Amino acid sequence: MLRSRRLLHRLTRHRLALVGFCITCILVLMAIIAPILAPEGYNAINVDRVREAPSMDFPLGTDEFGRSVLSRIIWGCRISLFVGVSVVLIGSVFGGFLGLVAGYFGGMPDQIISRIIDIFLTFPYILLAIAVVSVLGPGLFQMTFAIGFANIPRFARLVRGYALEIREQEYIEAVRALGGSHLRIIFHHVLPNCFSGILIYSTLTMGMAILAEAGLSFLGLGVQPPQPSWGIMIATGKNYLRTAPNMSIFPGLAITITAIGFNFLGDGLRDFLDPRFKRD
């Protein structure tokens, strides 16, 4: 009970983390109840209401086909969160496994895995994702895998660093002396102590993954029409910036607010979970 009160007290003191938490909750709720919350279907066409400015009927206006911008933003939230969560799962599972093996065992496994990680880290994050999706072809799942693949080296490097530090701790030596197996040490002692760092980085990666999804969809390498991706909405709206700026402005704001929310939440989790940043 006392621990919970301390965490709650620190949360209320960290205003930006509270803002990020609220934004994240709103996004998740929006994605879950999108069919109820959206005024129309994301592909409902109104041929007589093309490129209208915001009004009572369409609070954020309409696009080039008369589709509600608000509805498409709400439905697009589902795609953005799906990509973010999937990217984090791909990166943390595969990258975490490689990092644990390299950091805990050291020696030749560490040398091989570290050199592979270094090679992939020489490529800019977004360019590596573009290269992978160019091979696989455009589409939601191909793009999600490409962004997740680009994040594997980053998670592997993070977990490797934690594992290198944890394996030298005295309690690990004690477990070894008592006959603990490598698997037991890794899954019962090393991995749990890496969890807070993985959670913090995962939250920050969510924001980066959503930005990457929007960028790839903007370039035509990600989600394909008529699916409601925020990146596609901006790409389409750039052709009508003078006559219908609402087509690009509101999806851009959605991306910005989402990325800021996850970054604020990640900073707050860092303060709560990482003892080096606690500010009691």
Task: Calculate the mean pLDDT score and round it.
Answer: 88
Gyration radius, rounded: 22 Å
The best one-word shape is elongated
Going by CATH, what is the homologous superfamily?
MetI-like
- The overall strand count is 0
CATH class: Mainly Alpha
Question: Describe it for me?
Answer:
This protein has 280 residues and is mainly alpha-helical. The chain has a single domain (2-47, 58-277), classed as MetI-like fold (Orthogonal Bundle). 74% of the residues lie in helices and 0% in strands. It is built from eleven helices and no strands. It has helices at residues 2-13, 15-32, 34-37, 69-105, 107-121, 125-136, 140-166, 170-177, 182-218, 230-237, 246-273. Helix 9 packs antiparallel against helix 11. The longest helix is centred in the N-terminal third of the chain and has 37 residues, at 69-105. The protein is elongated and about 75 Å long. The mean pLDDT is 88.
Q: Secondary-structure map with pairings?
A:
Elements: H1 2-13, H2 15-32, H3 34-37, H4 69-105, H5 107-121, H6 125-136, H7 140-166, H8 170-177, H9 182-218, H10 230-237, H11 246-273
In short:
By secondary structure, this protein is an all-alpha fold. It is built from 11 helices and no strands.
Features:
single chain, 280 residues, mainly alpha, MetI-like fold, 11 helices
